[in-house]
Amino acid sequence: xxxxxxxxxxxxxxxxxxxxxxxxxxxxxxxxxxxxxxxxxxxxxxxxxxxxxxxxxxxxxxxxxxxxxxxxxxxxxxxxxxxxxxxxxxxxxxxxxxxxxxxxxxxxxxxxxxxxxxxxxxxxxxxxxxxxxxxxxxxxxxxxxxxxxxxxxxxxxxxxxxxxxxxxxxxxxxxxxxxxxxxxxxxxxxxxxxxxxxxxxxxxxxxxxxxxxxxxxxxxxxxxxxxxxxxxxxxxxxxxxxxxxxxxxxxxxxxxxxxxxxxxxxxxxxxxxxxxxxxxxxxxxxxxxxxxxxxxxxxxxxxxxxxxxxxxxxxxxxxxxxxxxxxxxxxxxxxxxxxxxxxxxxxxxxxxxxxxxxxxxxxxxxxxxxxxxxxxxxxxxxxxxxxxxxxxxxxxxxxxxxxxxxxxxxxxxxxxxxxxxxxxxxxxxxxxxxxxxxxxxxxxxxxxxxxxxxxxxxxxxxxxxxxxxxxxxxxxxxxxxxxxxxxxxxxxxxxxxxxxxxxxxxxxxxxxxxxxxxxxxxxxxxxxxxxxxxxxxxxxxxxxxxxxxxxxxxxxxxxxxxxxxxxxxxxxxxxxxxxxxxxxxxxxxxxxxxxxxxxxxxxxxxx
Length: 607
Prior knowledge:
By secondary structure, the protein is an alpha/beta fold. The chain has 3 domains: 2-151, no CATH class; 186-381, P-loop containing nucleotide triphosphate hydrolases (Rossmann fold); 389-603, Rossmann fold, CATH 3.40.50. The protein has 21 helices and 22 strands. The strands form 5 sheets. A 7-stranded parallel sheet has the order 10-11-9-12-13-8-16, with helices on both faces. 38% of the residues are buried.
């Protein structure tokens, strides 16, 4: 059975169908799917039909409006065909209390009056072209698995038709924000843009992870182009982040704006960049920091003199550090160039534990007509204003067996701390599986910094799941070991629900588009303040503005209450960064969490 539908798909139906496509590799029959408790409920029938290969879903996307044709056909084994069109109006505004007059037209190919060629055959041909060849007049047709869920729309059909209208794209706009979020820009984004403009197009936006920083940057890019700069330069620290910007630009910007990726995967990018900046066409050049700071990037920027805009994503990577080659390149670039518009984006530009390396970049990007300007939107405020979800923070105490203790206080503390790190990794698979079984659809497990640890954790989670549940599920990891294409595919599978458990190391800490992760397990310690701020933000994003679900974070603390004073003092120093993270996470979590966590810390010897 094939279904051709519009982009107006209920999110729960979309998730169920995508999950069904993900289960196909297990080759279940419909009877086997319906025999599973998880798939036998009426709301899960869509998943079961897709998983068993009995239903294919295709989506028709129109430039404006939605596909709303009502036609279909079915055949028997001998090839006899019945085609039909028409519908019963299922929307509330179309239903009358006195009953409705509806019409359906049915046609069959053995019709003796010979009307098949004029009606039914045409209906069938249109649908076959759409389903088999993905060709339909006036629409782009894709398989459901090819659809970016962000283009799906949920119209409010309960509105009176006399007062119902669809948002039309503003005339003259280069950036169609509704392609990202149907509700348009949020107030904090527009306020931030105004602050940037009023400071002579100089500012940094320190907005919590998940509050649409990238979209705010796209708004700034549109403004700069309208102000007449030769080009907007967007630069990020990693290819995967630049690819995300590239994807959004191609999706949301008017085709009159030339978008050019500027790094080594695109041979000839320098020539194309020079060509477009020397023409009258508006352009956005997307760089990776290394390609921007290198000789080719400098050549392109030099050709624009000062008449260009610079947007730096994850801008803390521009910190001046003369002991690091990239730090020296960033400092040299800021000394040598003066773009007329400058904007820095980051959840946290200066590390509060070591702020001095960020001084130069803050001055370069933010020092404008009104002085240094930074627009702040921290996580607590973002949650309060409804941009991010609330979260439940669960802290688990871990006891180290006595036999792990060494001889001297220093040796004992080192052994205990090492054992604690290993125990966290052994506990993480069970806690990750429990989160999934508790109904969290997507779970991130943050493990150590090595590929071997991520691989081991992924296998342990898979083993734990296979023991605990009969429902088939695959788990993935994202590390530097996977190719760029594989990482992109795995992240998309996670975003769309085909992969529900993901093991991650640092590659996911910055800029990667993970809009819906419902829970996380933190099985690693880190002294990087930004890193754990970003990791927390990854799971607080909302699916849509009405999303009132509560995210969950599972974290671990070592119980040091029974150790000697000497050992405890060393462990207090080793766990100082963990303690800072735990108190910060508790502070922003659901009401009552802070007191609960503080009690656990006191009982665990951390007072």
